[in-house]
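Hi F.,

I've been meaning to write this up properly since the lab meeting, where we talked about keeping a consistent format for the predictions we share between groups. The idea is simple: the sequence comes first, exactly as it goes in, then the C-alpha coordinates exactly as they come out, then a line or two of notes. No screenshots and no reformatting. I'm using this chain as the first example so we have something concrete to point to.
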Amino acid sequence: MGALAQAQPARLPTLGDGGDMSAGAERRLGDGIARELYRDPDYIDDPQLTEYVQDMWQALIAAARARGEISAELDDRFAFELFLGRDRTVNAFALPGGYLGVNLGLVGVVSTPDELASVLAHELSHISQRHIARLIGRQKVQTPLMMGAMVLGMLAASKNPQAGQALAIGGQALAVQTQLNFSRDMEREADRVGLGLMVPAGFAPQGFVSMFDKLQQANRINDNGSWPYLRSHPLTTQRIADMQARQPPDARAVPRDRGEFSLLNHVLLAARARVLSAPGVDVLRQWVAEPAGLGFSERPAAERAAVLYASALAASELRDSARARQWLARLQPLVAADAAASRQARLLGADIELRAGAPAAALAALPMPGASAGSALRPEVLLRAQALLALGRAGEASGALQSWVALHPQDATAWQALASNWQAQGQVLRAVRAEGEARAAQYDYAAAVDRFKAGQALAAQSGTPADYVEVSIIDTRLRAVQLLLREQTAER
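Output, unedited:
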Protein backbone atom coordinates (compact mmCIF):
# COMPACT_ATOMS: atom_id res chain seq x y z
CA MET A 1 0.00 0.00 0.00
CA GLY A 2 3.03 2.25 0.41
CA ALA A 3 3.31 2.92 -3.34
CA LEU A 4 -0.33 3.94 -3.45
CA ALA A 5 0.13 6.41 -0.61
CA GLN A 6 2.68 8.50 -2.47
CA ALA A 7 1.83 12.02 -3.63
CA GLN A 8 -1.06 11.79 -6.05
CA PRO A 9 -1.30 13.55 -9.41
CA ALA A 10 -3.99 16.15 -9.92
CA ARG A 11 -7.33 14.57 -10.71
CA LEU A 12 -8.86 14.98 -14.12
CA PRO A 13 -11.83 17.33 -14.15
CA THR A 14 -15.07 15.36 -14.10
CA LEU A 15 -17.97 15.87 -16.45
CA GLY A 16 -20.47 16.44 -13.66
CA ASP A 17 -21.47 15.29 -10.20
CA GLY A 18 -24.14 12.72 -10.94
CA GLY A 19 -27.02 15.00 -11.85
CA ASP A 20 -30.12 14.82 -9.69
CA MET A 21 -29.67 11.17 -8.66
CA SER A 22 -28.13 10.74 -5.21
CA ALA A 23 -25.59 8.02 -4.48
CA GLY A 24 -28.16 6.34 -2.23
CA ALA A 25 -30.82 6.34 -4.95
CA GLU A 26 -28.34 4.94 -7.46
CA ARG A 27 -27.36 2.18 -5.02
CA ARG A 28 -31.00 1.22 -4.45
CA LEU A 29 -31.55 1.03 -8.20
CA GLY A 30 -28.42 -1.10 -8.53
CA ASP A 31 -29.58 -3.43 -5.74
CA GLY A 32 -32.78 -4.14 -7.65
CA ILE A 33 -30.85 -4.95 -10.81
CA ALA A 34 -28.42 -7.11 -8.82
CA ARG A 35 -31.30 -9.12 -7.36
CA GLU A 36 -32.44 -10.02 -10.87
CA LEU A 37 -28.92 -10.84 -12.05
CA TYR A 38 -28.51 -13.33 -9.22
CA ARG A 39 -31.60 -15.10 -10.60
CA ASP A 40 -30.30 -15.10 -14.17
CA PRO A 41 -29.49 -18.65 -15.36
CA ASP A 42 -26.23 -17.30 -16.78
CA TYR A 43 -25.01 -16.14 -13.36
CA ILE A 44 -22.07 -18.24 -12.19
CA ASP A 45 -20.07 -18.20 -8.97
CA ASP A 46 -17.11 -20.37 -9.87
CA PRO A 47 -14.72 -20.09 -6.89
CA GLN A 48 -11.51 -19.99 -8.94
CA LEU A 49 -12.67 -17.48 -11.55
CA THR A 50 -14.55 -15.35 -9.06
CA GLU A 51 -11.47 -15.13 -6.84
CA TYR A 52 -9.25 -14.11 -9.77
CA VAL A 53 -11.49 -11.39 -11.18
CA GLN A 54 -12.48 -10.21 -7.70
CA ASP A 55 -8.85 -9.80 -6.60
CA MET A 56 -8.11 -7.81 -9.75
CA TRP A 57 -11.21 -5.66 -9.16
CA GLN A 58 -10.22 -5.01 -5.53
CA ALA A 59 -6.67 -4.03 -6.52
CA LEU A 60 -8.09 -1.42 -8.92
CA ILE A 61 -10.55 -0.16 -6.30
CA ALA A 62 -7.69 0.25 -3.81
CA ALA A 63 -5.77 2.27 -6.40
CA ALA A 64 -8.83 4.44 -7.11
CA ARG A 65 -9.26 5.12 -3.40
CA ALA A 66 -5.61 6.04 -2.99
CA ARG A 67 -5.78 8.42 -5.95
CA GLY A 68 -8.95 10.08 -4.66
CA GLU A 69 -11.10 8.87 -7.56
CA ILE A 70 -13.65 7.30 -5.22
CA SER A 71 -15.22 9.84 -2.90
CA ALA A 72 -15.96 9.02 0.74
CA GLU A 73 -19.70 9.05 -0.04
CA LEU A 74 -19.39 6.56 -2.89
CA ASP A 75 -17.07 4.38 -0.83
CA ASP A 76 -19.65 4.26 1.92
CA ARG A 77 -22.77 3.78 -0.21
CA PHE A 78 -21.73 1.81 -3.29
CA ALA A 79 -21.52 -1.99 -3.36
CA PHE A 80 -18.42 -2.43 -5.57
CA GLU A 81 -19.55 -6.00 -6.26
CA LEU A 82 -19.11 -7.93 -9.47
CA PHE A 83 -21.07 -10.65 -11.24
CA LEU A 84 -19.73 -13.30 -13.59
CA GLY A 85 -21.96 -14.57 -16.39
CA ARG A 86 -21.55 -17.72 -18.48
CA ASP A 87 -22.26 -15.76 -21.64
CA ARG A 88 -19.62 -16.40 -24.34
CA THR A 89 -19.98 -12.89 -25.76
CA VAL A 90 -17.13 -10.49 -25.06
CA ASN A 91 -18.65 -7.97 -22.70
CA ALA A 92 -18.36 -6.18 -19.37
CA PHE A 93 -20.73 -3.52 -18.07
CA ALA A 94 -20.91 -1.08 -15.20
CA LEU A 95 -24.27 -0.91 -13.43
CA PRO A 96 -25.84 1.62 -11.05
CA GLY A 97 -24.64 1.57 -7.47
CA GLY A 98 -21.13 0.26 -8.08
CA TYR A 99 -21.94 -3.14 -9.57
CA LEU A 100 -19.91 -4.66 -12.40
CA GLY A 101 -20.89 -7.46 -14.76
CA VAL A 102 -18.22 -9.53 -16.53
CA ASN A 103 -18.96 -12.24 -19.10
CA LEU A 104 -16.77 -15.32 -19.21
CA GLY A 105 -16.40 -14.58 -22.92
CA LEU A 106 -14.27 -11.55 -22.01
CA VAL A 107 -12.10 -13.47 -19.52
CA GLY A 108 -11.58 -16.21 -22.11
CA VAL A 109 -10.49 -13.92 -24.95
CA VAL A 110 -7.97 -11.61 -23.26
CA SER A 111 -4.34 -12.70 -23.58
CA THR A 112 -2.89 -11.14 -20.43
CA PRO A 113 -4.04 -10.03 -16.98
CA ASP A 114 -3.21 -6.46 -18.02
CA GLU A 115 -5.79 -6.56 -20.83
CA LEU A 116 -8.48 -7.76 -18.46
CA ALA A 117 -7.44 -5.16 -15.87
CA SER A 118 -7.74 -2.41 -18.50
CA VAL A 119 -11.40 -3.28 -19.10
CA LEU A 120 -12.17 -3.43 -15.37
CA ALA A 121 -10.34 -0.14 -14.78
CA HIS A 122 -12.35 1.53 -17.54
CA GLU A 123 -15.65 0.27 -16.10
CA LEU A 124 -14.63 1.24 -12.56
CA SER A 125 -14.00 4.76 -13.84
CA HIS A 126 -17.51 4.94 -15.27
CA ILE A 127 -18.69 4.16 -11.73
CA SER A 128 -16.35 6.50 -9.86
CA GLN A 129 -17.07 9.43 -12.21
CA ARG A 130 -20.86 8.95 -11.77
CA HIS A 131 -21.42 8.53 -15.52
CA ILE A 132 -24.32 6.14 -14.98
CA ALA A 133 -26.14 8.47 -12.58
CA ARG A 134 -25.76 11.40 -14.95
CA LEU A 135 -27.14 9.45 -17.87
CA ILE A 136 -30.07 8.15 -15.84
CA GLY A 137 -30.62 11.59 -14.34
CA ARG A 138 -31.37 12.96 -17.79
CA GLN A 139 -34.35 10.65 -18.07
CA LYS A 140 -36.32 12.44 -15.35
CA VAL A 141 -39.66 11.22 -16.64
CA GLN A 142 -38.72 7.59 -15.94
CA THR A 143 -39.30 5.98 -12.57
CA PRO A 144 -36.43 4.04 -10.96
CA LEU A 145 -38.36 0.79 -11.47
CA MET A 146 -38.77 1.45 -15.18
CA MET A 147 -35.12 2.43 -15.52
CA GLY A 148 -34.03 -0.74 -13.71
CA ALA A 149 -36.20 -2.90 -15.96
CA MET A 150 -34.83 -1.19 -19.03
CA VAL A 151 -31.23 -1.73 -17.94
CA LEU A 152 -32.02 -5.42 -17.46
CA GLY A 153 -33.66 -5.42 -20.88
CA MET A 154 -30.53 -4.01 -22.43
CA LEU A 155 -28.41 -6.73 -20.84
CA ALA A 156 -30.79 -9.41 -22.11
CA ALA A 157 -30.76 -7.81 -25.56
CA SER A 158 -27.00 -8.35 -25.77
CA LYS A 159 -27.77 -12.08 -25.85
CA ASN A 160 -31.19 -12.13 -27.46
CA PRO A 161 -32.69 -8.90 -28.87
CA GLN A 162 -36.24 -10.30 -28.75
CA ALA A 163 -35.92 -11.36 -25.12
CA GLY A 164 -34.42 -8.00 -24.22
CA GLN A 165 -37.27 -6.07 -25.77
CA ALA A 166 -39.80 -8.28 -24.03
CA LEU A 167 -38.17 -7.78 -20.63
CA ALA A 168 -37.96 -4.00 -20.84
CA ILE A 169 -41.15 -2.25 -19.75
CA GLY A 170 -43.10 -0.90 -22.68
CA GLY A 171 -40.73 -2.47 -25.21
CA GLN A 172 -38.46 0.60 -25.03
CA ALA A 173 -35.14 -1.23 -24.59
CA LEU A 174 -33.67 -0.09 -27.90
CA ALA A 175 -34.52 3.55 -27.29
CA VAL A 176 -33.03 3.49 -23.82
CA GLN A 177 -29.94 1.68 -25.13
CA THR A 178 -29.21 4.78 -27.18
CA GLN A 179 -29.95 7.11 -24.26
CA LEU A 180 -27.77 5.17 -21.77
CA ASN A 181 -24.80 4.62 -24.05
CA PHE A 182 -21.89 6.54 -22.65
CA SER A 183 -20.99 9.68 -24.58
CA ARG A 184 -17.65 10.03 -26.31
CA ASP A 185 -16.52 12.46 -23.62
CA MET A 186 -17.41 9.93 -20.93
CA GLU A 187 -15.58 7.17 -22.78
CA ARG A 188 -12.45 9.31 -23.01
CA GLU A 189 -12.68 10.24 -19.35
CA ALA A 190 -13.08 6.59 -18.33
CA ASP A 191 -10.06 5.69 -20.49
CA ARG A 192 -7.87 8.35 -18.90
CA VAL A 193 -8.93 7.76 -15.32
CA GLY A 194 -8.72 3.99 -15.80
CA LEU A 195 -5.23 4.27 -17.31
CA GLY A 196 -4.10 6.13 -14.19
CA LEU A 197 -5.17 3.20 -12.03
CA MET A 198 -3.14 0.54 -13.81
CA VAL A 199 0.37 1.08 -12.41
CA PRO A 200 -0.75 1.76 -8.81
CA ALA A 201 -2.82 -1.44 -8.95
CA GLY A 202 0.16 -3.45 -10.23
CA PHE A 203 -0.73 -3.76 -13.91
CA ALA A 204 1.02 -2.63 -17.09
CA PRO A 205 -0.83 0.26 -18.80
CA GLN A 206 0.16 -1.30 -22.12
CA GLY A 207 -2.84 -3.55 -21.46
CA PHE A 208 -5.08 -0.70 -22.61
CA VAL A 209 -3.34 -0.53 -25.99
CA SER A 210 -3.29 -4.28 -26.60
CA MET A 211 -6.97 -4.54 -25.60
CA PHE A 212 -7.81 -1.73 -28.01
CA ASP A 213 -5.92 -3.66 -30.70
CA LYS A 214 -8.22 -6.64 -30.09
CA LEU A 215 -11.30 -4.45 -30.28
CA GLN A 216 -10.05 -2.83 -33.47
CA GLN A 217 -9.49 -6.23 -35.08
CA ALA A 218 -13.03 -7.21 -34.16
CA ASN A 219 -14.26 -3.99 -35.79
CA ARG A 220 -12.37 -4.79 -38.98
CA ILE A 221 -14.07 -8.13 -39.39
CA ASN A 222 -17.50 -6.54 -38.94
CA ASP A 223 -18.58 -7.49 -35.43
CA ASN A 224 -20.92 -10.49 -35.72
CA GLY A 225 -22.63 -9.94 -32.38
CA SER A 226 -20.09 -11.74 -30.21
CA TRP A 227 -18.54 -8.46 -29.04
CA PRO A 228 -21.33 -6.43 -27.34
CA TYR A 229 -18.59 -4.35 -25.69
CA LEU A 230 -17.98 -2.72 -29.07
CA ARG A 231 -21.58 -1.54 -29.27
CA SER A 232 -21.84 -0.20 -25.73
CA HIS A 233 -18.29 1.26 -25.82
CA PRO A 234 -17.70 2.23 -29.47
CA LEU A 235 -14.02 2.34 -30.40
CA THR A 236 -12.68 5.40 -32.19
CA THR A 237 -9.28 6.21 -33.66
CA GLN A 238 -9.13 9.16 -31.27
CA ARG A 239 -9.50 6.88 -28.23
CA ILE A 240 -6.78 4.57 -29.53
CA ALA A 241 -4.40 7.43 -30.28
CA ASP A 242 -5.11 9.02 -26.89
CA MET A 243 -4.20 5.83 -25.00
CA GLN A 244 -1.07 5.30 -27.07
CA ALA A 245 0.06 8.90 -26.46
CA ARG A 246 -0.56 8.66 -22.71
CA GLN A 247 1.53 5.55 -22.16
CA PRO A 248 4.21 6.29 -19.53
CA PRO A 249 7.85 5.64 -20.46
CA ASP A 250 7.90 2.46 -18.36
CA ALA A 251 4.53 1.24 -19.68
CA ARG A 252 5.81 -2.28 -20.29
CA ALA A 253 7.56 -2.59 -16.94
CA VAL A 254 5.80 -5.01 -14.62
CA PRO A 255 7.05 -6.85 -11.52
CA ARG A 256 8.85 -10.12 -12.25
CA ASP A 257 6.91 -12.04 -9.60
CA ARG A 258 3.26 -11.11 -10.11
CA GLY A 259 1.75 -13.86 -7.98
CA GLU A 260 -1.73 -14.76 -9.10
CA PHE A 261 -1.46 -12.23 -11.94
CA SER A 262 1.36 -14.15 -13.62
CA LEU A 263 0.85 -14.82 -17.31
CA LEU A 264 0.80 -18.59 -16.80
CA ASN A 265 -1.86 -18.39 -14.11
CA HIS A 266 -3.92 -16.10 -16.34
CA VAL A 267 -3.87 -18.41 -19.37
CA LEU A 268 -5.09 -21.31 -17.19
CA LEU A 269 -8.00 -19.27 -15.86
CA ALA A 270 -8.81 -17.94 -19.32
CA ALA A 271 -9.00 -21.58 -20.45
CA ARG A 272 -11.31 -22.31 -17.51
CA ALA A 273 -13.55 -19.42 -18.54
CA ARG A 274 -13.81 -20.76 -22.10
CA VAL A 275 -14.86 -24.22 -20.89
CA LEU A 276 -17.34 -23.00 -18.27
CA SER A 277 -19.03 -20.66 -20.75
CA ALA A 278 -20.88 -23.76 -21.96
CA PRO A 279 -19.65 -23.96 -25.58
CA GLY A 280 -21.47 -27.24 -26.31
CA VAL A 281 -20.65 -30.95 -26.28
CA ASP A 282 -19.00 -31.00 -29.72
CA VAL A 283 -16.56 -28.24 -28.78
CA LEU A 284 -15.77 -29.93 -25.45
CA ARG A 285 -14.95 -33.14 -27.31
CA GLN A 286 -12.63 -31.27 -29.65
CA TRP A 287 -10.79 -29.79 -26.67
CA VAL A 288 -10.47 -33.20 -25.01
CA ALA A 289 -8.80 -34.57 -28.15
CA GLU A 290 -6.52 -31.58 -28.83
CA PRO A 291 -3.45 -32.63 -26.78
CA ALA A 292 -3.29 -35.86 -28.78
CA GLY A 293 -3.07 -33.98 -32.08
CA LEU A 294 -0.03 -33.67 -34.33
CA GLY A 295 2.32 -30.82 -33.49
CA PHE A 296 1.00 -30.28 -29.98
CA SER A 297 4.41 -30.86 -28.39
CA GLU A 298 5.90 -28.12 -30.58
CA ARG A 299 3.71 -25.38 -29.15
CA PRO A 300 5.02 -22.90 -26.54
CA ALA A 301 4.85 -24.19 -22.96
CA ALA A 302 2.22 -21.67 -21.82
CA GLU A 303 -0.02 -22.55 -24.75
CA ARG A 304 0.33 -26.26 -24.05
CA ALA A 305 -0.52 -25.65 -20.39
CA ALA A 306 -3.68 -23.75 -21.34
CA VAL A 307 -4.77 -26.49 -23.75
CA LEU A 308 -4.12 -29.25 -21.21
CA TYR A 309 -6.06 -27.36 -18.54
CA ALA A 310 -9.01 -26.84 -20.89
CA SER A 311 -8.82 -30.48 -22.06
CA ALA A 312 -8.79 -31.86 -18.51
CA LEU A 313 -11.70 -29.65 -17.43
CA ALA A 314 -13.66 -30.41 -20.62
CA ALA A 315 -13.15 -34.16 -20.06
CA SER A 316 -14.41 -33.75 -16.51
CA GLU A 317 -17.45 -31.86 -17.79
CA LEU A 318 -18.10 -34.83 -20.11
CA ARG A 319 -17.73 -37.25 -17.16
CA ASP A 320 -14.59 -38.78 -18.66
CA SER A 321 -12.58 -38.80 -15.43
CA ALA A 322 -9.85 -41.09 -16.78
CA ARG A 323 -9.00 -38.70 -19.62
CA ALA A 324 -9.30 -35.71 -17.26
CA ARG A 325 -6.72 -37.25 -14.92
CA GLN A 326 -4.47 -38.08 -17.88
CA TRP A 327 -4.35 -34.49 -19.11
CA LEU A 328 -3.99 -33.12 -15.57
CA ALA A 329 -0.93 -35.33 -15.02
CA ARG A 330 0.66 -33.83 -18.16
CA LEU A 331 -0.23 -30.30 -17.03
CA GLN A 332 1.34 -30.47 -13.57
CA PRO A 333 5.04 -30.50 -14.59
CA LEU A 334 4.46 -27.57 -16.95
CA VAL A 335 3.22 -25.34 -14.12
CA ALA A 336 5.38 -26.62 -11.25
CA ALA A 337 7.67 -23.57 -11.27
CA ASP A 338 4.78 -21.05 -11.00
CA ALA A 339 3.17 -21.14 -7.53
CA ALA A 340 -0.12 -19.58 -8.64
CA ALA A 341 -0.48 -21.79 -11.72
CA SER A 342 0.51 -24.88 -9.72
CA ARG A 343 -2.26 -24.04 -7.26
CA GLN A 344 -4.76 -23.86 -10.12
CA ALA A 345 -3.71 -27.34 -11.20
CA ARG A 346 -4.30 -28.65 -7.66
CA LEU A 347 -7.73 -27.00 -7.53
CA LEU A 348 -8.55 -28.49 -10.93
CA GLY A 349 -7.55 -31.88 -9.57
CA ALA A 350 -9.99 -31.45 -6.68
CA ASP A 351 -12.69 -30.40 -9.17
CA ILE A 352 -12.08 -33.51 -11.25
CA GLU A 353 -12.18 -35.88 -8.27
CA LEU A 354 -15.35 -34.37 -6.85
CA ARG A 355 -17.09 -34.71 -10.21
CA ALA A 356 -15.78 -38.28 -10.46
CA GLY A 357 -17.34 -39.13 -7.09
CA ALA A 358 -14.00 -39.47 -5.31
CA PRO A 359 -14.19 -36.93 -2.46
CA ALA A 360 -11.31 -38.51 -0.52
CA ALA A 361 -8.99 -37.93 -3.51
CA ALA A 362 -10.33 -34.38 -3.83
CA LEU A 363 -9.58 -33.71 -0.19
CA ALA A 364 -6.05 -35.06 -0.59
CA ALA A 365 -5.44 -32.48 -3.35
CA LEU A 366 -6.36 -29.59 -1.04
CA PRO A 367 -4.15 -28.15 1.70
CA MET A 368 -5.28 -28.03 5.30
CA PRO A 369 -6.74 -24.64 6.26
CA GLY A 370 -4.32 -22.16 7.80
CA ALA A 371 -4.28 -21.33 11.47
CA SER A 372 -5.64 -17.84 10.81
CA ALA A 373 -9.16 -17.37 9.46
CA GLY A 374 -7.94 -14.41 7.45
CA SER A 375 -5.41 -16.60 5.63
CA ALA A 376 -8.06 -18.94 4.22
CA LEU A 377 -8.63 -18.89 0.47
CA ARG A 378 -12.19 -19.12 -0.80
CA PRO A 379 -11.78 -21.91 -3.40
CA GLU A 380 -10.05 -24.15 -0.87
CA VAL A 381 -12.66 -23.43 1.83
CA LEU A 382 -15.58 -24.24 -0.50
CA LEU A 383 -14.00 -27.28 -2.15
CA ARG A 384 -12.93 -28.78 1.20
CA ALA A 385 -16.45 -28.25 2.55
CA GLN A 386 -17.91 -30.02 -0.47
CA ALA A 387 -15.50 -32.95 -0.14
CA LEU A 388 -16.02 -33.31 3.62
CA LEU A 389 -19.79 -33.18 3.19
CA ALA A 390 -19.62 -36.01 0.63
CA LEU A 391 -17.47 -38.03 3.05
CA GLY A 392 -19.95 -37.61 5.91
CA ARG A 393 -17.50 -35.40 7.83
CA ALA A 394 -19.37 -32.11 7.59
CA GLY A 395 -18.44 -31.09 11.12
CA GLU A 396 -14.77 -30.72 10.09
CA ALA A 397 -15.68 -27.92 7.70
CA SER A 398 -17.91 -25.93 10.06
CA GLY A 399 -15.17 -23.79 11.58
CA ALA A 400 -13.66 -22.69 8.28
CA LEU A 401 -17.08 -21.88 6.77
CA GLN A 402 -18.22 -19.93 9.83
CA SER A 403 -14.97 -17.96 9.88
CA TRP A 404 -15.36 -17.19 6.19
CA VAL A 405 -18.93 -15.86 6.40
CA ALA A 406 -18.03 -13.83 9.50
CA LEU A 407 -15.47 -11.99 7.37
CA HIS A 408 -17.55 -12.05 4.15
CA PRO A 409 -21.23 -11.79 5.17
CA GLN A 410 -22.32 -11.06 1.58
CA ASP A 411 -21.03 -14.39 0.24
CA ALA A 412 -24.28 -16.18 -0.62
CA THR A 413 -22.49 -19.29 -1.92
CA ALA A 414 -20.60 -19.74 1.34
CA TRP A 415 -23.80 -19.27 3.36
CA GLN A 416 -25.50 -21.94 1.26
CA ALA A 417 -22.55 -24.29 1.78
CA LEU A 418 -22.83 -23.65 5.52
CA ALA A 419 -26.57 -24.42 5.37
CA SER A 420 -25.83 -27.80 3.77
CA ASN A 421 -23.11 -28.40 6.34
CA TRP A 422 -25.39 -27.74 9.30
CA GLN A 423 -28.25 -29.72 7.74
CA ALA A 424 -25.97 -32.74 7.44
CA GLN A 425 -25.14 -32.44 11.15
CA GLY A 426 -28.81 -32.31 12.10
CA GLN A 427 -28.60 -28.65 13.13
CA VAL A 428 -31.75 -27.70 11.22
CA LEU A 429 -32.33 -24.34 12.91
CA ARG A 430 -28.85 -23.15 12.00
CA ALA A 431 -29.31 -24.45 8.47
CA VAL A 432 -32.53 -22.46 8.04
CA ARG A 433 -30.82 -19.29 9.28
CA ALA A 434 -27.93 -19.80 6.86
CA GLU A 435 -30.41 -20.18 4.01
CA GLY A 436 -31.98 -16.89 5.05
CA GLU A 437 -28.58 -15.19 5.08
CA ALA A 438 -27.86 -16.55 1.60
CA ARG A 439 -31.09 -15.04 0.27
CA ALA A 440 -30.42 -11.72 2.01
CA ALA A 441 -26.92 -11.59 0.49
CA GLN A 442 -28.58 -11.77 -2.94
CA TYR A 443 -31.02 -8.96 -2.06
CA ASP A 444 -33.97 -11.36 -2.16
CA TYR A 445 -35.36 -9.99 1.08
CA ALA A 446 -38.78 -11.61 0.69
CA ALA A 447 -37.22 -15.07 0.54
CA ALA A 448 -34.92 -14.20 3.46
CA VAL A 449 -37.88 -13.13 5.60
CA ASP A 450 -39.61 -16.40 4.73
CA ARG A 451 -36.61 -18.45 5.90
CA PHE A 452 -36.15 -16.48 9.12
CA LYS A 453 -39.86 -16.87 9.94
CA ALA A 454 -39.53 -20.58 9.22
CA GLY A 455 -36.71 -20.64 11.76
CA GLN A 456 -38.89 -18.95 14.36
CA ALA A 457 -41.69 -21.46 13.74
CA LEU A 458 -39.27 -24.36 13.94
CA ALA A 459 -37.95 -23.15 17.29
CA ALA A 460 -41.48 -22.62 18.63
CA GLN A 461 -42.62 -26.10 17.60
CA SER A 462 -39.55 -27.92 18.89
CA GLY A 463 -40.19 -30.21 21.81
CA THR A 464 -36.59 -29.79 23.02
CA PRO A 465 -34.94 -26.67 24.47
CA ALA A 466 -34.14 -24.39 21.58
CA ASP A 467 -30.75 -22.90 20.88
CA TYR A 468 -31.54 -19.55 22.49
CA VAL A 469 -28.54 -17.81 20.97
CA GLU A 470 -29.58 -18.97 17.49
CA VAL A 471 -33.20 -17.89 18.07
CA SER A 472 -32.00 -14.46 19.24
CA ILE A 473 -29.89 -14.05 16.08
CA ILE A 474 -32.85 -15.07 13.89
CA ASP A 475 -35.16 -12.58 15.63
CA THR A 476 -32.65 -9.76 15.18
CA ARG A 477 -31.96 -10.60 11.54
CA LEU A 478 -35.67 -10.94 10.79
CA ARG A 479 -36.38 -7.40 12.02
CA ALA A 480 -33.46 -5.99 10.03
CA VAL A 481 -34.42 -7.76 6.80
CA GLN A 482 -38.10 -6.88 7.20
CA LEU A 483 -37.08 -3.23 7.25
CA LEU A 484 -35.03 -3.72 4.08
CA LEU A 485 -37.96 -5.50 2.47
CA ARG A 486 -40.33 -2.61 3.25
CA GLU A 487 -37.86 -0.18 1.70
CA GLN A 488 -37.46 -2.43 -1.32
CA THR A 489 -41.23 -2.79 -1.75
CA ALA A 490 -41.80 0.97 -1.41
CA GLU A 491 -39.45 1.61 -4.35
CA ARG A 492 -41.47 -0.57 -6.73
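Notes:
Confidence is low (pLDDT under 50) at residues 1-16, 161-180.
The first helix runs from residue 23 to 39.

If this format works for you, I'll send the rest the same way.

G.
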